[in-house]
TrEMBL record:
Lineage of producing organism: Eukaryota, Metazoa, Chordata, Craniata, Vertebrata
Similarity comment: Belongs to the CoA-transferase III family.
GO cellular component: mitochondrion
Highest taxon in the source lineage: Eukaryota
GO BP, sorted A to Z: bile acid metabolic process
Protein name: Alpha-methylacyl-CoA racemase
Molecular function per GO: alpha-methylacyl-CoA racemase activity
A UniProt-annotated Pfam family: CoA_transf_3
Amino acid sequence: MALRGICVLELAGLAPGPFCGMILADFGAQVVRVDRPGASGDVSHLSRGKRSLVLDLKRPRGAAVLRRMCARADVLLEPFRSGVMEQLKLGPEILQGENPKLIYARLSGFGQSGRFSRVAGHDINYLALSGVLSKIGRSGENPYPPLNLLADFGGGGLMCALGIMMALFERTRSGKGQVIDANMVEGTAYLSSFLWKTQELWTQPRGQNILDGGAPFYTTYKTADGEFMAVGAIEPQFYQLLLKGLRSPGQQRKHRWSPELEMPSFLLSPQDLDCNLMNFPIR
């Protein structure tokens, strides 16, 4: 396993931190989750491959135990808002002073500096501030969040894991640890680089563009049995296969689609999902 022999201390938190720790454990790291006293355990259900212990970091004895553990660890993952660890006298200056090789990974909503750095938030808040939420939703409707996967898990946990991997690699050259400032807002904005660099694809209002559900060949349709069928036929060859499967060779050319020429839902709705899928054999 790639991370065999790497010791990670994960301070318990909500889903982004546990997801990051689970990724590291899945690739062989020894991950120890540090829970608060009285906590109900792993509420995120993301503790695969981890061990756990309880420490009260607000008490000198608990903080001292964590410091001793950090002196031998490779990575500390902390999910708190800016300033919390410093108040506990467990900031990177102290812990890396005792272990210069320690990688100190900070995973927060808004980062360690700025007007929101000490503000609480959730996935929908981070998604909104990144600008991505404004692009998700049907035309004429409110924007809606795609579960809590994009900001919490993609922009947060996954990006933090990537930062830890790069810091581990850099340490093989310098012999020193790094401080990682991973946060959901900037991570989500980075994930959406394609969105901001291809503005020519998003010239219409939300929900009226090719990739946001506005095109009849890239959207979902309800079937007769109440299920849904996802259609993604952007390229000409796939669009022709779609028309063939729908038994509608005379359907309008895709470059001429408009609200008046949308793919008629009756082509899908008379049949249930299984019947529709039979018209599109896997190739």
